[in-house]
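Service request form, structural biology core

Requester: graduate student, group of Dr. S.
Request type: structure prediction, single chain
Budget code: on file
Notes: please return the result as C-alpha coordinates.

Sequence provided:
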Amino acid sequence: MGHNVSSSKQSSGVIQGNNVENSSNTITGNNNANHKVNGNIVDGFKQVSRRNVKIPDDKRMCDITSCHVLKDSSILVTDYSNRKLKKCNKNDSVLSIDLPCGPNDSCCLGNNNDVIVCGDNMLCYINTAGKMKITRTVSTDHKCNGITCHNDRVYIVDDTKLYEYSLTGVKGRTVYQNEPSSTKFCHVKVDTSGSVFYISDEMSGLYVVNTSGDLASTYFDQTLSEAQGVCVMDTGDVLVSGFQSDNVIEVDKTGTKKIRTLIQDAGYISDPKCLYFHEQTRDLYVGQWNDYLSIFKL
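Core staff response, request fulfilled:
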Protein backbone atom coordinates (compact mmCIF):
# COMPACT_ATOMS: atom_id res chain seq x y z
CA MET A 1 0.00 0.00 0.00
CA GLY A 2 2.81 2.41 0.80
CA HIS A 3 4.30 2.47 -2.69
CA ASN A 4 1.15 2.04 -4.71
CA VAL A 5 2.02 4.82 -7.15
CA SER A 6 0.66 5.41 -10.61
CA SER A 7 3.25 5.14 -13.38
CA SER A 8 2.32 8.62 -14.57
CA LYS A 9 3.98 10.20 -11.55
CA GLN A 10 7.22 9.59 -9.72
CA SER A 11 8.00 11.00 -6.31
CA SER A 12 9.80 14.31 -6.40
CA GLY A 13 11.89 13.26 -3.41
CA VAL A 14 11.73 16.42 -1.32
CA ILE A 15 9.44 19.37 -0.98
CA GLN A 16 10.35 22.22 -3.27
CA GLY A 17 11.74 25.19 -1.46
CA ASN A 18 14.34 25.53 1.26
CA ASN A 19 16.26 22.46 2.34
CA VAL A 20 14.90 22.47 5.86
CA GLU A 21 16.19 20.00 8.42
CA ASN A 22 13.61 20.26 11.18
CA SER A 23 10.42 21.88 12.36
CA SER A 24 12.12 25.14 13.32
CA ASN A 25 11.81 26.32 9.71
CA THR A 26 8.56 28.28 9.74
CA ILE A 27 6.83 30.38 7.11
CA THR A 28 4.27 32.87 8.38
CA GLY A 29 1.05 33.38 6.47
CA ASN A 30 -1.96 35.48 7.23
CA ASN A 31 -5.61 35.24 8.11
CA ASN A 32 -6.89 36.40 4.74
CA ALA A 33 -9.00 34.09 2.62
CA ASN A 34 -6.13 33.17 0.32
CA HIS A 35 -2.38 33.27 0.80
CA LYS A 36 -0.63 33.15 -2.58
CA VAL A 37 2.75 31.50 -2.92
CA ASN A 38 4.47 31.27 -6.32
CA GLY A 39 1.11 31.68 -8.01
CA ASN A 40 -0.50 28.85 -6.07
CA ILE A 41 -2.88 29.09 -3.14
CA VAL A 42 -2.87 28.03 0.48
CA ASP A 43 -6.28 29.00 1.82
CA GLY A 44 -6.37 30.76 5.18
CA PHE A 45 -3.31 29.35 6.95
CA LYS A 46 -1.44 31.25 9.65
CA GLN A 47 1.92 29.54 9.32
CA VAL A 48 3.49 26.38 8.00
CA SER A 49 6.49 24.42 9.23
CA ARG A 50 8.22 21.28 8.06
CA ARG A 51 9.71 18.45 10.05
CA ASN A 52 12.43 16.17 8.70
CA VAL A 53 11.74 12.60 9.89
CA LYS A 54 14.69 10.92 8.20
CA ILE A 55 17.21 9.22 10.49
CA PRO A 56 20.82 8.16 9.73
CA ASP A 57 20.13 4.44 9.29
CA ASP A 58 17.25 4.93 6.83
CA LYS A 59 18.23 3.22 3.60
CA ARG A 60 15.50 4.79 1.47
CA MET A 61 13.59 8.01 1.13
CA CYS A 62 10.79 8.09 3.69
CA ASP A 63 7.21 7.25 2.80
CA ILE A 64 5.01 8.71 5.55
CA THR A 65 1.79 6.71 5.54
CA SER A 66 0.33 7.94 8.84
CA CYS A 67 1.01 10.35 11.68
CA HIS A 68 -0.63 11.57 14.85
CA VAL A 69 0.26 13.55 17.96
CA LEU A 70 0.69 11.80 21.31
CA LYS A 71 -0.28 13.26 24.69
CA ASP A 72 3.29 14.42 25.34
CA SER A 73 3.17 16.39 22.03
CA SER A 74 5.60 14.07 20.26
CA ILE A 75 4.59 13.00 16.75
CA LEU A 76 4.21 9.35 15.85
CA VAL A 77 5.01 8.57 12.21
CA THR A 78 4.87 5.35 10.18
CA ASP A 79 7.50 5.07 7.44
CA TYR A 80 6.61 2.43 4.87
CA SER A 81 9.83 2.60 2.84
CA ASN A 82 12.11 1.97 5.82
CA ARG A 83 9.69 -0.32 7.73
CA LYS A 84 9.86 1.84 10.82
CA LEU A 85 7.73 3.47 13.46
CA LYS A 86 9.23 6.83 14.42
CA LYS A 87 8.58 9.14 17.35
CA CYS A 88 9.57 12.74 16.74
CA ASN A 89 10.13 14.54 20.04
CA LYS A 90 9.86 18.26 20.71
CA ASN A 91 13.65 18.59 20.90
CA ASP A 92 13.87 17.44 17.25
CA SER A 93 15.24 14.01 18.17
CA VAL A 94 13.69 10.98 16.43
CA LEU A 95 13.34 7.58 18.09
CA SER A 96 12.47 4.56 15.96
CA ILE A 97 11.77 0.85 16.07
CA ASP A 98 11.82 -1.65 13.21
CA LEU A 99 8.54 -3.22 12.13
CA PRO A 100 7.99 -6.68 10.60
CA CYS A 101 6.95 -5.14 7.27
CA GLY A 102 5.99 -1.82 5.77
CA PRO A 103 3.30 0.03 7.79
CA ASN A 104 0.25 1.37 5.94
CA ASP A 105 -1.59 3.22 8.71
CA SER A 106 -1.96 3.56 12.48
CA CYS A 107 -4.41 4.62 15.16
CA CYS A 108 -4.12 5.50 18.83
CA LEU A 109 -5.89 3.22 21.31
CA GLY A 110 -4.97 5.34 24.34
CA ASN A 111 -2.81 4.63 27.40
CA ASN A 112 0.39 4.60 25.33
CA ASN A 113 -0.99 1.95 22.98
CA ASP A 114 -1.18 2.13 19.19
CA VAL A 115 -2.12 -0.40 16.57
CA ILE A 116 -0.51 -0.37 13.13
CA VAL A 117 -1.62 -2.16 9.98
CA CYS A 118 1.50 -3.67 8.42
CA GLY A 119 2.06 -5.28 5.04
CA ASP A 120 -0.95 -7.01 3.57
CA ASN A 121 -2.45 -8.78 6.59
CA MET A 122 -1.00 -7.88 9.97
CA LEU A 123 -2.00 -5.82 13.00
CA CYS A 124 0.99 -4.73 15.06
CA TYR A 125 0.32 -3.53 18.62
CA ILE A 126 2.80 -1.00 19.99
CA ASN A 127 3.56 0.43 23.41
CA THR A 128 4.57 3.99 22.50
CA ALA A 129 6.00 4.95 25.91
CA GLY A 130 9.72 5.59 26.19
CA LYS A 131 11.73 3.85 23.49
CA MET A 132 8.59 2.05 22.19
CA LYS A 133 8.19 -1.69 21.68
CA ILE A 134 6.02 -4.18 19.83
CA THR A 135 3.77 -6.00 22.30
CA ARG A 136 2.11 -8.46 19.93
CA THR A 137 0.95 -9.05 16.37
CA VAL A 138 -2.29 -10.40 14.91
CA SER A 139 -2.69 -11.88 11.41
CA THR A 140 -5.80 -11.12 9.36
CA ASP A 141 -7.41 -12.92 6.42
CA HIS A 142 -7.55 -9.79 4.28
CA LYS A 143 -5.43 -6.83 3.24
CA CYS A 144 -5.09 -3.97 5.70
CA ASN A 145 -4.81 -0.60 3.97
CA GLY A 146 -6.21 1.81 6.54
CA ILE A 147 -7.33 1.81 10.16
CA THR A 148 -9.32 3.96 12.58
CA CYS A 149 -10.91 3.40 15.99
CA HIS A 150 -13.76 4.62 18.15
CA ASN A 151 -14.41 3.62 21.76
CA ASP A 152 -14.03 -0.17 21.94
CA ARG A 153 -13.98 -0.86 18.20
CA VAL A 154 -11.33 -0.77 15.48
CA TYR A 155 -12.21 -0.41 11.80
CA ILE A 156 -10.01 -1.52 8.90
CA VAL A 157 -10.32 -1.16 5.13
CA ASP A 158 -8.88 -3.37 2.43
CA ASP A 159 -9.33 -2.49 -1.26
CA THR A 160 -13.11 -2.89 -1.25
CA LYS A 161 -14.41 -3.57 2.27
CA LEU A 162 -14.73 -1.95 5.69
CA TYR A 163 -14.36 -4.37 8.61
CA GLU A 164 -15.11 -4.05 12.32
CA TYR A 165 -12.70 -5.48 14.91
CA SER A 166 -12.44 -5.56 18.68
CA LEU A 167 -9.61 -3.62 20.31
CA THR A 168 -7.72 -6.90 20.79
CA GLY A 169 -7.87 -7.79 17.11
CA VAL A 170 -10.86 -10.15 16.93
CA LYS A 171 -12.63 -9.78 13.59
CA GLY A 172 -16.33 -8.93 13.66
CA ARG A 173 -18.72 -7.93 10.93
CA THR A 174 -18.11 -6.56 7.47
CA VAL A 175 -19.61 -3.08 7.70
CA TYR A 176 -19.52 -2.22 4.00
CA GLN A 177 -18.49 -3.79 0.69
CA ASN A 178 -18.13 -2.26 -2.75
CA GLU A 179 -17.51 -3.65 -6.21
CA PRO A 180 -13.82 -4.58 -6.76
CA SER A 181 -13.70 -3.12 -10.27
CA SER A 182 -14.54 0.41 -9.13
CA THR A 183 -12.79 0.77 -5.78
CA LYS A 184 -9.34 1.00 -4.22
CA PHE A 185 -9.84 2.03 -0.60
CA CYS A 186 -6.82 3.62 1.06
CA HIS A 187 -7.49 5.31 4.43
CA VAL A 188 -10.51 5.48 6.71
CA LYS A 189 -11.53 7.88 9.49
CA VAL A 190 -14.59 7.96 11.74
CA ASP A 191 -16.38 11.06 13.00
CA THR A 192 -16.50 11.96 16.69
CA SER A 193 -19.90 10.31 17.16
CA GLY A 194 -18.63 7.02 15.77
CA SER A 195 -21.55 6.86 13.36
CA VAL A 196 -20.03 7.97 10.05
CA PHE A 197 -16.96 6.65 8.20
CA TYR A 198 -15.01 8.59 5.60
CA ILE A 199 -13.03 6.37 3.23
CA SER A 200 -10.53 7.67 0.68
CA ASP A 201 -10.68 5.80 -2.60
CA GLU A 202 -7.79 6.13 -5.02
CA MET A 203 -10.12 5.55 -7.97
CA SER A 204 -13.27 7.46 -7.02
CA GLY A 205 -12.52 10.07 -4.34
CA LEU A 206 -14.42 9.91 -1.04
CA TYR A 207 -16.97 7.39 0.28
CA VAL A 208 -19.24 8.22 3.22
CA VAL A 209 -20.65 5.15 4.99
CA ASN A 210 -22.79 4.91 8.14
CA THR A 211 -22.53 2.26 10.86
CA SER A 212 -25.45 0.33 9.39
CA GLY A 213 -23.35 -0.26 6.30
CA ASP A 214 -25.32 2.09 4.06
CA LEU A 215 -23.50 4.20 1.52
CA ALA A 216 -24.58 7.73 2.42
CA SER A 217 -22.73 9.50 -0.39
CA THR A 218 -19.70 9.56 -2.64
CA TYR A 219 -17.75 12.62 -3.66
CA PHE A 220 -15.65 12.91 -6.80
CA ASP A 221 -13.69 16.01 -7.71
CA GLN A 222 -11.82 16.37 -11.00
CA THR A 223 -9.14 18.41 -9.26
CA LEU A 224 -8.46 15.57 -6.79
CA SER A 225 -6.40 12.81 -8.37
CA GLU A 226 -5.74 9.54 -6.48
CA ALA A 227 -7.30 10.35 -3.10
CA GLN A 228 -5.29 8.96 -0.20
CA GLY A 229 -5.14 10.98 3.03
CA VAL A 230 -8.36 11.72 4.91
CA CYS A 231 -9.14 13.33 8.27
CA VAL A 232 -12.07 14.91 10.12
CA MET A 233 -11.77 18.48 11.41
CA ASP A 234 -13.22 19.88 14.65
CA THR A 235 -16.00 21.44 12.55
CA GLY A 236 -17.01 18.00 11.27
CA ASP A 237 -15.85 18.84 7.77
CA VAL A 238 -13.53 16.40 6.01
CA LEU A 239 -10.12 16.94 4.42
CA VAL A 240 -8.91 14.71 1.58
CA SER A 241 -5.50 14.75 -0.12
CA GLY A 242 -4.76 13.94 -3.74
CA PHE A 243 -1.50 12.05 -4.23
CA GLN A 244 -1.29 12.76 -7.95
CA SER A 245 -2.73 16.27 -7.78
CA ASP A 246 -0.60 17.49 -4.81
CA ASN A 247 -3.56 19.11 -3.08
CA VAL A 248 -5.88 19.00 -0.09
CA ILE A 249 -9.57 19.80 -0.42
CA GLU A 250 -12.23 20.39 2.24
CA VAL A 251 -15.60 18.69 1.88
CA ASP A 252 -18.69 19.15 4.06
CA LYS A 253 -19.60 16.44 6.62
CA THR A 254 -22.24 14.93 4.33
CA GLY A 255 -19.63 14.29 1.66
CA THR A 256 -21.70 16.03 -1.00
CA LYS A 257 -20.26 19.54 -1.26
CA LYS A 258 -16.77 20.91 -1.73
CA ILE A 259 -16.09 23.83 0.57
CA ARG A 260 -12.69 24.89 -0.75
CA THR A 261 -9.30 23.82 -1.97
CA LEU A 262 -7.26 24.21 1.18
CA ILE A 263 -3.82 23.55 -0.32
CA GLN A 264 -2.87 23.36 -3.98
CA ASP A 265 0.83 22.48 -4.32
CA ALA A 266 2.24 25.90 -3.34
CA GLY A 267 5.68 24.34 -2.86
CA TYR A 268 4.58 23.02 0.54
CA ILE A 269 3.40 19.50 -0.26
CA SER A 270 4.50 16.81 -2.69
CA ASP A 271 2.91 13.37 -3.05
CA PRO A 272 0.67 13.69 0.06
CA LYS A 273 -0.06 10.26 1.55
CA CYS A 274 -1.81 10.97 4.88
CA LEU A 275 -3.54 13.71 6.86
CA TYR A 276 -3.97 14.32 10.57
CA PHE A 277 -5.87 17.20 12.21
CA HIS A 278 -4.92 18.05 15.80
CA GLU A 279 -7.96 19.62 17.41
CA GLN A 280 -6.21 21.23 20.39
CA THR A 281 -3.77 23.24 18.26
CA ARG A 282 -5.73 23.27 14.98
CA ASP A 283 -2.65 22.05 13.17
CA LEU A 284 -2.94 20.02 9.99
CA TYR A 285 -0.18 17.45 9.48
CA VAL A 286 0.48 16.29 5.92
CA GLY A 287 2.63 13.17 5.52
CA GLN A 288 4.25 12.67 2.12
CA TRP A 289 6.30 10.30 0.01
CA ASN A 290 9.48 12.12 0.99
CA ASP A 291 11.39 12.87 4.19
CA TYR A 292 9.15 15.67 5.50
CA LEU A 293 5.98 16.33 7.43
CA SER A 294 4.36 19.63 6.46
CA ILE A 295 2.47 21.22 9.36
CA PHE A 296 -0.12 23.92 8.67
CA LYS A 297 -1.60 26.03 11.47
CA LEU A 298 -5.15 26.73 10.37
